[in-house]
Specification:
Helix content is 70%, strand content 3%. It is an all-alpha fold. The radius of gyration is 27 Å and the shape is elongated.
Length: 409
């Protein structure tokens, strides 16, 4: 770090040959190369990530411009190491260094070289490198581009082909996460970030191409499996994507409300001609199974809502007292919003899942206080998402089953 601080003051004005010198020295010895990779990574972080507020604006811009102009030499060194070195620690340091570069290097270095193929086919499937490689691919996935669509589609196809070999869709990821090592658990988290990032940024690109649309659907299935993992942070990552996905489908063409118990009802996917535009209806039909499984997952995992206690204050007045748990409340609100979108898309399916799960509480096959509480929180979260008559009808059924359950217990 001391050298990096010196470089911030002396380079490039008083030490213009620093980049050529460090690249040249790195080619003489692998241990020296590994140390130099760390130096270059730290320099990149200081210049591009932490410079704001520490370096004057003109100085920071000059350092960034200089590093960009001389980056070809650094890139060639990274590529040389990745192509030729057999030293695990050096390759790992090089990939970690490359990770810091991907947010600012010219896009040609990413999409007009063999970098993507090197990452996906050479390192992604190697356990010791797969986490840092997946982080590099996630950084690439987050880039917003107006070109290089073929290269992005190829990247995703390559990753999915490798992933299905490493982690087949039939895998019980929830159980694998529990029994896995720290590295395995980190991979599951990194995978959730990669898939959610790529689908959010480039989902329409994948849908628009016949040969990648299947990989898009497979990726959604992986995200459903990842959403069942018993880890709050992983679930939050997945939930953020699902909220975006469900809201996008809803906003494309809000469904038409018609009541089941009267003259109007909310038509679900494929039920009402004219309830949605052709393309929006087609997308809903395409993802009907995904959306149904997502409803089930969110209902099973619904977070606890804000608690309200009715108490008497010092003045003798009966008032509401709110119990604050910021993280839990934030999670509940996000889950509630997502489930409301999903209910608007097909309230019949939401009602079916809730009714089936309530029946399983009554017959004892899924009975537990935790399961019952979670289900009740989910039912309460969709208040107002149905038409009034349907909500009353549904609520009567729920109360009837709950009263029957009370008699049993």
């Amino acid at each position: 770090m001391i050298l990096v601080q010196i470089l911030k003051q002396e380079w490039p004005k008083n030490w213009p040959s620093f980049i050529p010198e460090i690249v040249g020295a790195s080619k003489t010895n692998e241990s020296l190369c590994q140390n130099n990779m760390v130096i270059v990574k730290l320099l990149s972080e200081e210049v591009f990530d932490f410079s704001e507020g520490q370096i004057v604006q003109n100085k920071a811009k000059h350092l960034k411009d200089t590093m960009c102009n001389q980056f070809s030499q650094i890139y060639q060194l990274c590529q040389f190491v990745l192509d030729n070195s057999q030293k695990v620690s050096l390759i790992d340091a090089t990939l970690a260094t490359l990770l810091r570069f991907l947010s600012w290097i010219p896009l040609g270095y990413i999409f007009e070289t063999n970098l993507v193929d090197t990452l996906t086919w050479k390192f992604f499937s190697v356990p010791v490198f797969r986490n840092v490689t997946l982080m590099c691919l996630t950084e690439i996935a987050g880039i917003t581009v107006t070109q290089y669509h073929d290269q992005l589609a190829h990247l995703f196809e390559s990753v999915m082909n490798q992933l299905k070999e490493m982690l087949p869709l039939e895998t019980n990821i929830r159980e694998a996460y529990i029994t896995g090592s720290d590295t395995d658990q980190k991979f599951v988290q990194n995978l959730s970030v990669f898939l959610s990032t790529f689908l959010r940024e480039h989902g329409p690109l994948l849908e628009s191409r016949e040969y990648t649309s299947k990989f898009n659907y497979d990726a959604l299935q992986y995200l459903l499996l990842l959403s069942t993992v018993d880890d709050v942070e992983i679930f939050k990552i997945c939930l953020e994507f699902w909220n975006h996905f469900a809201s996008e489908l809803y906003r494309e063409s809000p469904p038409v409300f018609h009541s089941l118990s009267g003259t109007t009802m909310l038509y679900a996917s494929g039920q009402s001609p004219g309830s949605a535009s052709g393309s929006a209806q087609s997308r809903r039909d395409q993802y009907r199974d995904i959306l149904s499984r997502l409803r089930y997952t969110i209902i099973c995992r619904m977070a606890k809502p804000e608690e309200v206690l009715v108490v008497e204050n010092d003045q003798g007045e009966v008032v509401r007292e709110f119990m604050k748990d910021t993280d839990a409340i934030t999670l509940y609100r996000s889950m509630r919003e997502t489930l409301v979108y999903l209910t608007h898309l097909d309230f019949i399916d939401t009602e079916r899942i809730m009714t089936d799960k309530l029946a399983n509480q009554v017959n004892g096959t899924e009975w537990s206080w935790k399961n019952l509480n979670t289900l009740c929180w989910a039912i309460g979260s969709i208040s107002g998402a149905m038409l009034e008559d349907d909500e009353k009808r549904f609520l009567v059924l729920v109360i009837k089953d709950l009263l029957g359950l009370c008699e049993q217990k």
